[in-house]
Amino acid sequence: MSSEKGNVARRRPQRHQNARAFKNDKYDTSARLKKINAKLHDGVCQHCKGILEWRVKFSKYKLLSKPKKCVKCLQKAVKDPYHIICRPCASKLEVCAKCGKEEEIVIPIDKGQGGTENKTTENGQESGLEDELDFDTNFSSTDNEEDSDRLEERFKSMTFERTEVQ
Ligand SMILES: [Zn+2]
Ligand SMILES: [Zn+2]
């Protein structure tokens, strides 16, 4: 095996290529992640809550940059990512805000809050809004295909049903 001699000199250490372990805080460690981790996942059934928690855990939980249309009242009133029904409708109809089924809701929506989080008047600098805008622009560059694929594979081995955001 002395013929290897020539190659040995050229061989480069490859340890950098191994620095790809999955990290929950890869995208962020700051406000956005805190906000996401603080999510209660209220108004959804056990099954959907599990999916949302899974997404948070694997950094696949994306915040909405703008409200989505509610499938019940057709208003752009859905402020929670992955939900299809706005809070007022979900609480009125007593259905899961994510899958729309009449399942038992793990954490009922607080009806007293009216479902809005308008804090824009606070000090004139509402950090939450900036976070979301910032988040939107950042995301396209940080959410690279490779990671998605790896996560997809993990996801497939789990039993959760897959639902699309849109
Ligand atoms: Zn609605
Ligand atoms: Zn559900």
UniProtKB/TrEMBL annotation:
InterPro entries attached to this UniProt entry: DUF2039
Compositionally biased residues, Basic residues: 8-18
Protein name per UniProt: Chromosome 9 open reading frame 85
Pfam (any one): DUF2039
Taxonomy of the source species: Eukaryota, Metazoa, Chordata, Craniata, Vertebrata
Species this chain originates from: Gallus gallus
Biased composition, class Polar residues, residue ranges: 116-126
Gene name as annotated: C9orf85
Compositionally biased residues, Basic and acidic residues: 151-166
Chain spans, region Disordered: 1-24, 110-166
